[in-house]
């Protein structure tokens, strides 16, 4: 899973088509073939089932949580590989509910990362906290580590702000309460490739979030012999929005290669889970 780095020119041109839709099962798959080592499927599956049961029985009793649901802001975790030359920037917001995030910093440091607190900005009701993260004096390039960073931040959010659980796809796997409205994976999945200069293209992916998604996506891209470098990895509640610089033999993707990549990604991202625990 080698990552090739390309830092070249600009110029955005063509856009490949995005969504089409077919009715299919809209379950959100679990970790996939590259699920993180940290995730232990069996207990999670059990926990999820228990959560679902309690939610269902609440519904049967007529309990409604739409009031509290509205009050809970959407958590956003953005991993930015572009803005700083030497460090990976992680930007985190959950309305105005986040404190100093010392535990999150500690959890990230426990992964062996150098973490410094960047700016904290408040814009209307949203407080954005930035961390600068380095590993071996450079930004983090390893997709496995990037996914660990993402899940570590989200796990801390779930731990200290359990109410975020129902707003995060990860709430279904690690939280106390799964999201009530799941994202329809067919509708939510968009894949677009644009030129980004002669030497590389920009790949945009939007899909239902799940643990291990980043690794899965990178595996799909590299399996088609395309070089990939992550640019931005966003988690916005239930949805993941990722940008990657991609290239083929040091050049941007031509139209046929772009289409192959788009079709591959759509196919895998929309595929219903195959290793689902049976009932
Ligand atoms: C696009 O690139 C691939 C790989 O180099 C090549 O096989 C294919 O013929 C190209 N297609 C077009 C339309 O240029």
Automatic annotation (TrEMBL):
Keyword annotations: Repeat, Signal
Signal peptide: 1-25
Keyword Transit peptide: no
InterPro entries: ACR1-12, ACT-like_dom_sf, ACT_dom
Molecular function GO terms recorded: amino acid binding
Domain of life: Eukaryota
SUPFAM superfamilies: ACT-like
Domain ACT: 202-279
Function noted in UniProt: Binds amino acids.
Protein name: ACT domain-containing protein ACR
Organism: Panicum miliaceum (Proso millet)
């Amino acid at each position: 899973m080698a990552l090739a780095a390309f830092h070249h020119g600009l110029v955005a041109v063509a856009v490949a088509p995005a969504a089409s839709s077919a009715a299919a099962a809209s379950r959100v798959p679990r970790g996939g073939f590259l699920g993180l080592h940290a995730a232990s499927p069996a207990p999670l599956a059990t926990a999820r089932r228990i959560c679902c049961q309690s939610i269902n029985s609440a519904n049967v009793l007529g309990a409604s949580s739409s009031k509290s649901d509205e009050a809970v802001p959407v958590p956003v975790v953005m991993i930015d590989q572009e803005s700083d030359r030497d460090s990976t920037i992680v930007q985190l917001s959950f309305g105005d509910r986040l404190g100093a995030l010392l535990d999150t910093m500690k959890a990230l440091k426990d992964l062996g990362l150098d973490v410094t607190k960047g700016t904290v900005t408040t814009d209307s009701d949203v407080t954005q906290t930035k961390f600068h993260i380095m590993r071996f004096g450079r930004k983090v390039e390893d997709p496995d580590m990037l996914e660990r960073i993402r899940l570590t931040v989200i796990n801390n959010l779930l731990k200290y702000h359990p109410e975020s659980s129902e707003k995060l796809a990860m709430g279904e796997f690690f939280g106390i309460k799964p999201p009530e409205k799941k994202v329809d994976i067919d509708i939510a999945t968009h894949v677009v490739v644009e030129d980004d200069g002669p030497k590389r293209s920009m790949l945009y992916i939007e899909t239902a979030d799940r643990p291990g998604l980043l690794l899965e996506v990178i595996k799909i891209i590299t399996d088609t012999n395309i070089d990939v470098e992550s640019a931005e990895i966003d988690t916005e509640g239930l949805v993941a929005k990722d940008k990657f610089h991609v290239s083929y033999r040091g050049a941007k993707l031509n139209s046929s290669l772009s289409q192959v990549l788009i079709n591959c990604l759509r196919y895998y991202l929309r595929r219903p889970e195959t290793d689902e625990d049976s009932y």
